[in-house]
Hints:
Helix content of chain B: 40-55%
Number of strands of chain A: 11
Number of helices of chain B: 32
Shape of chain B: globular
Oligomer: heterodimer
Largest sheet of chain A: 9 strands, mixed
Number of domains of chain A: 1
Largest interface: A-B, 17 and 19 residues
CATH topology of chain A: TIM Barrel
Bound molecules: iron/sulfur cluster
CATH class of chain A: Alpha Beta
Structural class of chain B: alpha/beta
Order of helices and strands of chain A: EEEEEHHEHEHEHHEHEHHE
Strand order of the largest sheet of chain A: 5-1-2-6-7-8-9-10-11
Amino acid sequence: MKKGLISKVQRYSINDGPGIRSTVFLKGCNLNCMWCSNPELIDFSQSYLDGKPVGELISVKDVVKEVIRDIDFYKESLGGVTFSGGEPLLQSDFLLECIKLLKDYSIHIAIDTALYVDKKIIKKLLPYVDLWLVDLKSIDDITHIKTTNVSNKIILDNIKFLYKNNVNMWIRCILVNKENYDLDELKKRLNFIESIKKCVKRVDILGYHQLGVSKYQKLNKEYLLTNEALLSDIQEKEVEELIKEYVLPIYFERGI
Amino acid sequence: MQLLEMKIDNIDTIDFKRIDRLRKIMQNRKASLCSERAKIYTEVFKETEEEPMILRKAKGLSKTLNDMSIYHLDDSLIFGNQASRNFAAPIFPEYSIKWLLDEVDSFEYRDGDVFNVSDEVKKDLREIGKYWINKTHEDNVNNNIPQINLLAEKQKVLHRGGISNSGDGHIVSDHKWLLEIGYSGMVDLINEKLKNPDLSDNQINFYNASKMTLIAGLNYAKRFANYFKEKAKLNNDKKLYYLSEIANKVLDGPCESFHEALQAIYLNHVFLMIESNGHSFCYGRIDQYLYPYYQNDIKKGVLTKAKALELITHFFIMNNSLNKIRSNGHTLFSQGYPLYTNVMVGGLLPSGEDGTNDLTYLSVEAMGLCRLNEPNFSMRYHKESPKEILSLASKLIRTGCGMPSMFNDATCIKGLIDLGIDKEDAYDYVAIGCVETGVQGKYGHRATGMTYMNWGKILEIVLNRGFDPNTNIRLFKLSKEPKSYEELWNDWKKALAFYSELSFESDRVCDRSLEIYDSSPLGSIFIHNSLELGKTLKEGGCEYDVVSQSNIGSSVVGNSLMVLKKLVFEDKKYTYSQIMEALKNNWQDEEIHKACLEVEKFGNNSDQVDLIVKDVFDSYLELLDGVKTIRYNRGPKISKYTMSTSNITSYIPNGKNVGATPDGRKAQSPLNEGCSPTQNTVSKGLTALINSVSVLPNEKVAAGQLLNTRISYQLLNNEEKIDKFISFLRVSAKKGIYHNQFNVVSNKVLKDAQIHPENHRDLIVRVAGYCAQFVALTPEAQEAIIQRNEYGA
Ligand code: SF4
């Protein structure tokens, strides 16, 4: 049986999809976002944070065993299990086995991904995933490259692919002042989302938050953002105004 | 001031400023002592030495109600005072006086629960103190407590708590009945009873005593009627004329309005708190028994929702004007001036239907406006409870005041039915005090909190083969080292059985004495079947006599046994003596400490340890079969022991007496609270916690299974998350969780309150089965709250 490199399983997870969920955090990511709040999950091997190891090889069986313990909570709240990371799609074989097993229990599955992967992987998973939580970090490729280290071409292409396959999507847009935030750019992002709106069940616009900062120090990683990354009041207002122009189900959460 | 959620017509007719002024008075209240009651009782007791105790107590109460000073907080729509000043505690010398005299100079220097005592009161106390030497309930208990129990107390296994030096409380009058007939109606019923020529002297005394106190209660209200009238005349004040009318009418015959009903139950409550210095005198299901009066007034057009909300808020706030003084030792067990005046709303009716009504919603909103530590606000819920009421409750929880505490009907009702309580009565259960459940109007005193048993200490004694390492006292023998987990487990059972036997005897000694000194004619009469049988509750006048002790440290014991099982007996990583050595030097050996900490702990949904904690519960439950109270066969339908983990702040002082334990806990640090996990040993989240607790025999802990959960505000900060939280509550109920209560205040705020208490007088936190003003707690209790596991998003 396959094993996955997992940092933790978070239960009573309420920010990663509908209802009460368990979120399985898979380690390893092929992006390197400036604002990443889980920098300890970027490496593809075990690392250390606060003297504790992050990342352990865990078998499909053990993951499934743990998450089905909360099945009653999922059923009552219309929740389920979310695979997040890092980039969960990079451990797709393991992921597929987990999901298939969970489907035997009719558990709702969400995948939280940046979609910077080969389409084949997505294809493989398509039939089993109920909800795709997709990050769209910038529509402007230069910004995307500058802030995440990769181009958004593949990502946008994959989103379109998902759209063609008529899946359910929640799209998340993070806004970081001075880095990826620009009202015009946001407009373009939202226009793009609107163009695929029949698949988009929800859009979350998230103001930058500083929750991950302390981890950088501990990991001896340079943190390039400052306080200025927070949106100003004026910017928050303009975002709120902009949102009103769309019929999409947009939720805006201010940063802290 | 803002409501939590409700949209109410004419909301601007509520005088919010007045509510705010009253709240401020209570927030800034200063506890003090009042000697009026003590002086009056001393006088009465001196004059009545030859008479039966029940008459002496009745005369004491009557004279107090007649002669004590009365005052009224101008802004309040509800009147009635317990002592001569706001938040002054009366003194009850017939229960105990020695500790009061010993400690009176130190009350103002306590770390928490400070009391100011004027020189005059000190003088009064010393004066009357002489009379009471060797004449109190406490003396009686001390004279009768067996030597071996005293040794167990010295070992700090047993603690007699409040019941050995104060009254019992823990009763809920049948308020519905009280409102239907009033005190005067009860006097008529008693007169009927007295016509029976076959009554025993005891019965005649009981009836006469009750009658006397009821009449004194009526007279007390009339005193207020005059007081208001005189004051009203001075400035032709309409409100005061109105209050005077209420005072004239209240308790005198059937209740006629919603306002009068609130006033009636408040006065009755105040009287019970002058009659006895027990605590946990409770109101029960106010949304049910007040509803007819509410509905009637609304129909008549004399009441609006807004007005009802304002009245309930005043009624809630006024409960913060009452007080009780406890000895230094007992204060540590229950910090924050708690009175545990429980109010319960929502839940199923005896008919099996949902009872949520307008008053349920208004009560939650009123608590949102009151947001003080009393009353102890609780809610019952079940699978058909409307989502709207659970949402409103969540919004009150979100304010951080720790209320309501959420009780799960299915489990609580089943627990009571299994004890032998009639189904309809079980459906009418209420919380009495913290989390102990019982039937309003039918339970006698003390659903919980008889003798306290420190399970952490028992474990330590087991590990030390019978010896308490602090005192070197050994009361029973154990063989040398256990060779297997089974042997260790049997040692635990043996020790628990040994100490439980002693504790039952402590209970009986206290109960026998309380039967005399806490013979409460007024407290008894509105509880069935005192009137019928002509005797007090303590003599067996109650329909149901279910008591429990309070057991502290179940998770510490279970986790510790798990560590020994795994590391010593299964993996053989360390020997028994290696672990004992590490405990003795309080974990100087870091490697062993780390290994012990790493063994799985209760609360993380890991089956093996969860089941051991369950075994620990079962090992006690098995001992309760057939244990009888002193009222067995003397009146109650059932007379039984059940279990409770409602152990207030006692997990802190109890922990202080216990050395390091194998679960990795350091010497002297707190034990676990209620059935909650130990501090800093959970990492799997809320659902894992619920799954763990659901393994325990919750419905058998029928006097209250306390689960205190600290969650971050982020779990409740929007409607969507509240929906998820409601699902969480519903699943918890399905899984048989007995009840759950929530703390939402962040450490940042708590720490700031430690540094700047003056800015945080409004900070109410969940302490245990009750809430308290954070700044009134001792530094240790504050720290223990800060240390609690917090569940985030
Ligand atoms: S995609 Fe997510 S996990 Fe990967 S670097 Fe970006 S923010 Fe971090």
